[in-house]
Specification:
Layout lengths: L5 H11 L2 H11 L26 H7 L4 H10 L1 H16 L5 H12 L29
Helix pairs in contact: 1-2, 4-5, 5-6
Amino acid sequence: MKQKCGVSIIKEHCRRRTLNRILEKYIKSCRYDPGDDGGTATKQPSKKGFVRFPNIAGFCGFYRISIEDLENLASEFPEEISYLYAIFEDEALNSGLPPAVLSAYLKKRLGYEKDDLSRDSFQAPLSIRFEHDIYDDGK
């Protein structure tokens, strides 16, 4: 049986609205036993139980997709990918990382440094649809 690629797996979970399942699987892999996904258990767990900090790049590596692939999925599944980014933001804010590391991560990966218009660049572009036909007015 042919194994599905990471993008296909993530798309399938987005369609089913079960993205939290694969996200949880990745976050668990960052905890006590990093050997589950091929990592080596060379570090001791932090107070929160993490050996590795759960982050977007790690998630993409875990499912063998590029960060660009993940960002491209945002146009097709804006709510689901926005949810994913929110979880990683929460993980970062509650990680106990040093402020300099946290600041760099929030700015580079989650867009905190960008202006307000591009703050949610990982979300689908806004589309406006008018359902009123002005040509039918006055008939």
